[in-house]
Specification:
Strands 3-2-1-4-5-6-7 form a 7-stranded parallel beta sheet, sandwiched between helices. Helix 1 packs parallel to helix 2, helix 4 (about 130-155) packs parallel to helix 5 and helix 8 packs across helix 9 (about 260-270). With about 290 residues, it is α/β, with parallel strands linked by helices. Helix content is about 45%, strand content about 15%. It is built from 10 helices and 7 strands. It has helices spanning about 25-35, 60-70, 85-100, 130-155, 180-200, 215-220, 225-230, 235-245, 260-270, 280-290, and strands spanning about 15-20, 40-45, 75-80, 105-110, 165-170, 205-210, 260. The protein has a single domain (about 15-290), classed as NAD(P)-binding Rossmann-like Domain (Rossmann fold, 3-Layer(aba) Sandwich), CATH 3.40.50.720.
Length: about 290
Amino acid sequence: MNGGTMDVQQPLTGKVALVTGASRGLGRATALELAAAGAHVILTARSTRGHSTVPALPGTTVDDTADAIRAAGGQATPLQCDHTDPAQVEAVIRHVAQMHGRLDVLVNNAWGAHEGGAGAGSGAEVWDEPFDGLRNMLLAGAYSDYVTSLLVLKQVMGGQGDGLIVSTTWHTDEPPGWLPYEVSKAAKNRLVYALAHKLQGKGIAVVGVAPGWMRTELMRLHHAEQELAGQTETPHYAARGIVALARDPQVSRHSGRILDVGELADLYGITDLDGTQPHWYAERRRQSTAE
């Protein structure tokens, strides 16, 4: 679903999904695609109508995402939540438990660490990096995923005997890229592996999904279109990969792994909105190895 009508094939009908950070970017696309597949999607974000964390991007709140889902015939429940605050997360999960009694899919996508304006290479030397960069990324990344996953498991999913937890992330680069970003993503990736290990035998899979360079609203705000053309993908590419994982009755075979969106394309035959199957990460790794 991308502003149109619901797909007649809805393999996730009757399923309940929670997507964090669903106001824009990959979270928004994932919510749209899950709803198109028939799931009732609970959407969370800090940005609500009239109270956006990025005022320069109008129309990108959790309420706008919910409106887009409903306009296409889907089911959506928007809720404001800062996933770095356990009390707010607990309130959301309690709502899910009371209203639905189960949760089939959790997508940990909330992220707010770039809003301060600092970017890669903000220090002349590596020791000039601001100290709060890593703290903010860990808080809005691995810590947010940790809190949300454990509360979901404790209050809803742990007693079901099935379920899927997805964390959106990134492969750590070789050679390493921006220092705080690399460390924060490594923490998210290790959480996926460690949590999957702890949940062995409980029927709950934990998988990381790593998109390529996406043409999100924030990317378009800070980069010229000619810079993005030819080397980016839409957020719907990775979102469709997440839906494919949610549909897969044997998804547990991927538990503990970080899957690049290109790998998901090969596994499940997904395509981007234009019908292509970019493999940016694999190509980038080949180039770095050759160098």
